[in-house]
Write a structure and sequence with these properties.
The protein is α+β, with helices and mostly antiparallel strands and 77 residues long. Helices cover 34% and strands 38% of the residues.
Length: 77
């Protein structure tokens, strides 16, 4: 499960056997969330607060092009 990005204690990653739609997993401490990248939408979350989800979403939006690029590099190579 390659780590793509670390920001503000959040780890952005995907699993090696991922599937469409393009998405990213995020974890911090015991909490996790999963967001699609086109459009940026929360798919599911576990053990995260509403404010953490808000912060994660902002970080995904800010880095969405980079995250898509990393997805494409990993899965299309």
């Amino acid at each position: 499960m390659p780590t793509i990005l670390k920001i503000k204690g959040y780890r952005f990653f995907f699993y090696s056997n991922e599937h469409i739609p393009i998405h990213i997993h995020i974890e911090k401490n015991e909490g996790t969330a999963k967001f699609t990248l086109t459009p940026v939408e929360l798919i599911k979350s576990k053990k995260v607060t509403a404010s953490e989800i808000h912060e994660m979403r902002k970080l995904v939006i800010k880095n969405v092009e980079f995250l898509k690029q990393k997805w494409n590099e990993y899965y299309n190579s």
